[in-house]
């Protein structure tokens, strides 16, 4: 497996360990909400780009020019442990919330991040560790 793919996985896992602490924060604070949303954006970016590199490793041509949506849809065929609908919802939420700010919508998104997206990010990390474990341990 390419070293850059391993680094991306390490970045994904490291960022997730920070994002998983979101539920411990003062979520009524709008500044904290913004931080959780920003961490989610980073985590999502790391996730779909990790899928892109893994698809390249697997030899799928979509990795050469795929959009996040294309990458997610194809990645689901390789990594059936991922929840395609959840990843597509993440993509939608990333796109919709990056251009506007509303405190009610922000709090609702934070709740979705904590209740739905963080568990999915963790599930994917676990799935990838299971699938590529020996390769990951070499780094």
As a whole number of angstroms, the C-alpha radius of gyration is 15 Å
CATH architecture: Up-down Bundle
Coarse shape? globular
Compute the separation of the termini in Å.
10 Å
The structural class is mainly alpha
Number of domains: 1
DSSP helix fraction: over 70%
**Largest β sheet strand count, sense and barrel closure:** none
In total, the number of strands is 0
**Number of discrete helical segments:** 5
Q: Give the CATH superfamily.
A: Nucleotidyltransferases  domain 2
Q: Uncertain runs with pLDDT below 50, 5 residues or more? A: none
What name does CATH use for the topology?
Four Helix Bundle (Hemerythrin (Met), subunit A)
In round numbers, the mean pLDDT is: 89
Provide the succession of SSEs: HHHHH
Features:
single chain, 139 residues, mainly alpha, Four Helix Bundle (Hemerythrin (Met), subunit A), 5 helices, globular
Set down the secondary structure blueprint.
Layout: H1 3-19, H2 30-58, H3 68-78, H4 84-97, H5 103-137
If you had to describe this structure to a student in words, what would you say it looks like?
With 139 residues, the chain is an all-alpha fold. The protein has a single domain (3-137), classed as Nucleotidyltransferases  domain 2 (Four Helix Bundle (Hemerythrin (Met), subunit A)), CATH 1.20.120. It is built from 5 helices and no strands. It has helices spanning 3-19, 30-58, 68-78, 84-97, 103-137. The longest helix has 35 residues, at 103-137. The N and C termini lie close together (10 Å). The mean pLDDT is 89.
């Amino acid at each position: 497996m390419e070293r850059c793919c391993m680094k991306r996985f390490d970045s994904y896992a490291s960022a997730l360990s920070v994002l998983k602490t979101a539920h411990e924060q003062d979520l009524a604070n709008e500044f904290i909400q913004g931080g959780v949303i920003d961490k989610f954006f980073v985590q999502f970016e790391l996730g779909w780009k990790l899928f892109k590199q893994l698809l390249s490793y697997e030899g799928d041509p979509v990795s050469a020019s795929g959009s996040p949506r294309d990458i997610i849809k194809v990645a689901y065929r390789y990594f059936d442990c991922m929840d395609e609908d959840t990843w597509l919802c993440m993509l939608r939420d990333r796109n919709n919330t990056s251009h506007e700010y509303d405190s009610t919508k922000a709090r609702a998104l934070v709740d979705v991040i904590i209740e739905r997206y963080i568990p999915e990010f963790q599930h994917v990390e676990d799935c990838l560790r299971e699938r590529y474990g020996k390769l990951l341990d070499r780094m």
